[in-house]
Design brief:
The chain is built from six helices and three strands. By secondary structure, the chain is mainly α. The chain has a domain of about 90 residues: Chloramphenicol acetyltransferase-like domain (Chloramphenicol Acetyltransferase), CATH 3.30.559.10. Strand 1 and strand 2 form a beta hairpin.
Length: about 150
């Protein structure tokens, strides 16, 4: 099967200098937003997504999960499907989503993400034999942590 799958792949490589340091949006943030929009277009909704990030600057050997900014990604995806959407609006929504992704990335990299503290709270309750806090029993929490898309080193 692998040879037939590989035969169907077209690969184009190029270098784009626009993503150089300080030259606009970070490529990683743009790709993460594009993945959210692509998922929305394929399935009609966003999904719980995570990208593991190293916390080596603040907690060597540890990671945390970066989650995309849902509302800006959803607004962009919906606008892209609107045939009357003006290019200026689309560009503004793209910038907003990419900036929100970049901001979340910096928060997680600086140790300010929510995933690690929540995981610690859950684990502490389990180890102490205490009942889990209600947050962890809520169906919304289960849905938010059932990752349908996991990206790594984009």
């Amino acid at each position: 099967h692998a040879p037939s799958l590989a035969a169907d792949v077209e690969l184009f490589c190029f270098t784009y200098e626009g993503f150089a340091e300080g030259a606009g949006p970070r490529a990683e943030a743009l790709v993460q937003v594009a993945l959210q929009v692509a998922f929305y277009r394929a399935h009609g909704s966003l999904c719980a997504t995570c990208e593991p990030l190293s916390l080596r600057r603040v907690l060597p050997g540890c990671t945390d999960l970066l989650r995309p900014p849902g509302p800006p990604c959803l607004a962009l995806a919906r606008a892209l499907d609107d045939p009357d959407a003006q290019p200026e609006l689309l560009l503004a929504l793209l910038r907003e989503a990419v900036e929100a992704q970049d901001s979340r990335t910096q928060e997680v990299l600086s140790g300010q993400g929510a995933g690690r503290p929540l995981q610690g709270l859950r684990q502490a309750a389990l180890e102490a034999g205490e009942p889990l806090p209600e947050l962890f029993l809520d169906p919304a929490y289960a849905q938010a942590t059932h990752f349908r898309l996991c990206t790594l080193q984009v």
